[in-house]
Design goal:
This protein is α+β, with helices and mostly antiparallel strands. It contains five helices and ten strands. α3 runs antiparallel to α4 and α4 packs antiparallel against α5. The longest helix is centred in the C-terminal third of the chain and has 18 residues. The relative contact order is 0.14. The mean pLDDT is 95. This is Aminoglycoside phosphotransferase domain-containing protein.
Length: 246
């Protein structure tokens, strides 16, 4: 999206201004901003209005339930995004460091999962079990992968078939977790979609408390998902190597 897209920031008020760029991955341009005298985070990307509306609605739902998430800050006329730009509450905190921290993360993720059963799928996305028959969805295109790799991924996802689905965060790396002594916050919901909750719970120190069998199911399915969603970069090739041959 051209840099002029940042002109949309004026829709949050005449005093809204960018401060400095933040790490936001390859899909978005992310900056700290000042809106109405408060520091916030603004993300400019190419997602559709339907996609942005899905994410904004999810953030509002989780916020009302008491979770700490980057809630969208409305424009001056009440919209939750404008011209591909979303302005969100800034969330403070640091990454998890200990096994106890990661257990708190697991419990927070399980709260998200409980609060979003029967949630509609993010527009254009597919779940891992949808991809047992579908070939594509948003960033995934199985037709671009070797047939043998697709077969391995589908074998891993087939072990999840029939399970309850919900919203998964989709990218629970430490950079997307903001912890304080009394709460756990989750940021950067770009990869969130409806899927099987086990995909969110492959965490350090086996923080979710999986037994050996469930740990294997979740780890294989997660490795297959990341191989497919990132195909074909070096990371995806490494993740595919973790998925057992059939």
């Amino acid at each position: 999206m051209p840099a002029t897209g940042w002109n949309a920031l004026g829709q949050w008020g005449d005093d809204a201004v960018r401060i400095e760029p933040l790490s936001g991955g390859v899909a978005n341009d992310v900056w700290s901003v000042r809106v109405k005298g408060q520091v916030a985070v603004a993300r400019l990307g190419k997602r559709s209005d339907a996609d942005l509306a899905w994410e904004a609605g999810l953030m509002q739902h989780l916020d009302r339930a008491g979770l700490i998430v980057p809630v969208p800050i409305p424009t001056a006329d009440g919209r939750l995004f404008a011209d591909g730009l979303t302005v969100m509450r800034y969330v403070e905190g640091g990454p998890p460091e200990t096994a106890a921290d990661w257990r708190r993360v697991a419990e927070t993720l399980r709260q998200v999962h409980r609060l979003t059963q029967n949630w509609p799928q993010r527009p254009g996305w597919r779940s891992s079990t949808d991809l047992l028959t579908a070939e594509s969805g948003t960033r995934i295109n199985l037709a671009a992968m070797p047939a043998e790799a697709v077969a391995r991924c589908r074998a891993a996802w087939a072990r999840l078939a029939g399970r309850q689905t919900c919203v998964v965060h989709g990218d629970t790396n430490p950079r997307n977790i903001r912890m304080t002594a009394d709460r756990v916050a989750l940021i950067d919901w770009d990869e969130s979609h409806v899927d099987v909750p086990a995909l969110d719970l492959v965490l350090p120190h086996n923080a979710a408390g999986f037994d050996t069998a469930e740990s294997d199911i979740a780890a294989q399915a997660s490795a297959a998902w990341e191989a497919a969603v990132c195909w074909k970069d070096d990371y995806s090739v490494r993740r595919l190597a973790e998925v057992r041959a059939i």
